[in-house]
Design a protein that fits this description.
This protein is of the alpha/beta class and 302 residues long. It is built from 11 helices and 12 strands.
């Protein structure tokens, strides 16, 4: 089959690309920035630079394709684009390009609880795209991942190193849980299910923990027992999001998403076997990368 993968050089996209390269499929790897990982054989696929907000850059992208998989989404702060520009309209442009080319299958990486995130742009924009995809007439698969190992590490490890872990106060002692998944295992599942017909999968790993338990495991990885974990009122996230500096940096929507995830269960009922999250935390392979990023940020701000 001929498979078009958009968002091919992001973290998840790169792992999907690696998995595809182990098959005999024809591959088109497309992204806003073409940055082929060192451990990927570039001769196995075609590359295409695209801007999903500009439909003209998508012309011919899907020609002859059997499957289109998109991981495209705005995952951080931006002063130029919103999630509605990228996650919704950008991916809608891809859907239209796939329809015009007669693509048989379209796969979209969404987010857990997408149908519960009205008012949260990083979530609601994805739900809008899900609904548009269902109405498009294309045969679709929607994957709703709970979260990824490396994302959780990027959130918790800086707090662990500064011994300043903060969680949000919840009503009635409710302890939100998550069963996050390794992107390599998720990539394998995407390939296994990409030709399913009109399916939505809420996807997670096989280990479910509360955020407090996750903090404890990261503390243990750093050699700390009973490390401090504070809880703060949830409305503090709203207050931070209203600060002019935060708004100017385009971070308000990121804070809304963080609040949403920290107050709700993020548990997928399709559990993908594979790498252990507990073992991942203990191995600390993420630590040098994150600490180097923190050092570079500190040097830049000095």
């Amino acid at each position: 089959m001929r498979i078009v993968l958009t968002g091919a050089f992001g973290k998840l996209g790169s792992d999907i690309l690696r998995a595809l390269c182990a098959t005999d499929h024809q591959i088109v790897a497309a992204d806003a920035v073409v940055r082929v990982p060192d451990d990927v054989d570039a001769s196995r696929f075609e590359t295409r630079q695209i801007d999903v907000t500009r439909p003209e850059t998508l012309e011919g992208l899907c020609d002859g394709a059997d499957v289109v998989i998109t991981t495209v989404g705005l995952t951080g702060a931006s002063t130029r684009f919103t999630n509605y520009d990228i996650d919704y309209q950008g991916n809608l442009n891809l859907i239209e390009a796939a329809r015009a080319a007669g693509v048989a299958h379209f796969g979209y990486v969404s987010v857990i609880n997408a149908d519960k995130g009205e008012g949260i742009p990083m979530v609601h924009s994805k739900f809008m795209l899900e609904e548009a995809l269902k109405a498009s007439g294309l045969t679709y698969v929607i994957w709703r991942p709970t979260g990824y190992f490396y994302d959780i590490a990027h959130v918790f490890w800086p707090m662990i190193k500064s011994k300043s872990v903060q969680l949000l106060k919840t009503k009635g002692g409710f302890e939100p849980r998550a069963n996050v998944v390794d992107t390599r295992d998720f990539a394998r599942f995407i390939l296994e299910t990409m030709c399913d017909e009109n399916k939505t999968y809420s996807v997670g790993g096989t280990e479910t923990y509360t955020y407090r338990q996750i903090a404890e495991m990261f503390y243990n990885a750093d050699g700390v027992t009973n490390g401090p974990v504070k809880t703060v009122p949830a409305f503090m996230m709203d207050v931070l999001g209203m600060l002019p500096k935060i708004k100017a940096q385009g971070k308000s929507d990121v804070l809304k998403f963080s609040k949403f995830t920290l107050l709700n269960d993020c548990v997928g009922d399709t559990e993908i076997p594979g790498r252990s999250f507990r073992e991942y935390i203990a191995e600390k392979s993420y630590a040098p990368v994150i600490e180097a990023e923190l050092a570079a940020k500190a040097a830049k701000e000095a």
